[in-house]
Amino acid sequence: MFRKTLIAATLATVALPSASAFADPPRWAPAHGYRAKNGDIAYRRTDNGIRYWEGSDGRYYCRRGDGTVGLLAGAAVGALLGRAIDTRGERATGTILGAAAGALIGNELAKGPTRCR
């Protein structure tokens, strides 16, 4: 009997959330940030794919990829090529150097030639 009561009480406690968990944060909290005050940012896109928006100060700001996908893909391909080129010994040196060089090249290729100003 005690076991069933304990299980029922535990399930009721888990199933009924407390009201304080769903309360709004105070108005001064960081949760009420820029979007809550000014709405969503309207992005525009240039011909070469760079997203930009106009700030409240009249300046234009841009956003584009940081090259993470290129970094990871370049590191994988570079590690395979470095391992294939280094045929002596345990081949760890070629793998590590190939991965580092591939990561740098892949990152730069993914970012593209344009600069964000």
Describe this structure in words.
Strands 1-2-3 form a three-stranded antiparallel β-sheet, with no helix packed on it. The protein contains four helices and three strands. The chain has two domains: 27-64, no CATH class; 68-111, no CATH class. The longest helix is centred in the last third of the chain and has 20 residues, at 92-111. Helix content is 49%, strand content 9%. It has 117 residues and is mainly α. It has helices spanning 2-15, 34-38, 68-85, 92-111, and strands at 44-45, 51-54, 60-63. It is flat, with a radius of gyration of 27 Å. Helix 3 (68-85) runs antiparallel to helix 4 (92-111).
Name the poorly predicted regions. none
Q: How would a crystallographer describe the biggest sheet?
A: 3 strands, antiparallel
Approximately what portion of the residues adopt beta-strand conformation? 5-15%
Instruction: Give helix % range.
Output: 40-55%
Separation of termini?
71 Å
Number of domains: 2
**Contiguous helical run count:** 4
* Whole-number mean pLDDT: 77
> What global shape is seen?
flat
Helical/strand content category = mainly alpha
Q: Count the strands?
A: 3
Order of helices and strands: HHEEEHH
Kindly provide the radius of gyration, computed on alpha-carbon positions and rounded to a whole number of angstroms.
Answer: 27 Å
In spatial order, strands of the major sheet run 1-2-3
Main location: membrane
Protein name: 17 kDa surface antigen
Subcellular location: Cell outer membrane
Keywords: Lipoprotein, Signal
